[in-house]
Amino acid sequence: MKKRVNLLICTVAIAVLSAVIISCSPEKKPEGITRTELQRHDLSIPGREAVQLLVEFGQGVVAGNHRHPGEEVIYVTEGLLEYQVEGKPPVTLKVGEVLFIPAGTVHSAKNVGSGNGAELATYIVEKGKPLVEAVK
Question: Does residue 18 lie in a domain region?
Fold first, then answer.
């Protein structure tokens, strides 16, 4: 019985600690967006790394203005996504279409399709910096 109580206490402590760590994360994401890191590798360019994520958007979800500490290459894998890149007119991409976003450029994305949307995002960024910086 004592072992079960200790196990329960440890499980609750781990859950609470995990919630605190997640809530303090500097890379908070909007509700309805899931980012799954697929790979991260150092590059031959000193101080740079490649990071690849699958970014999934719920229906109607917006990833507000943000930027990255390097280039972003987008490949739409699901749905219909609209991108607003600073200094350019909005562009709507469907599955199989791509977009390049220069380093530090403010941009946003919105799922304008009738279902879920997703992109394969590849970043060539400065190592050790937050991948996403929200911009007001």
Answer: no
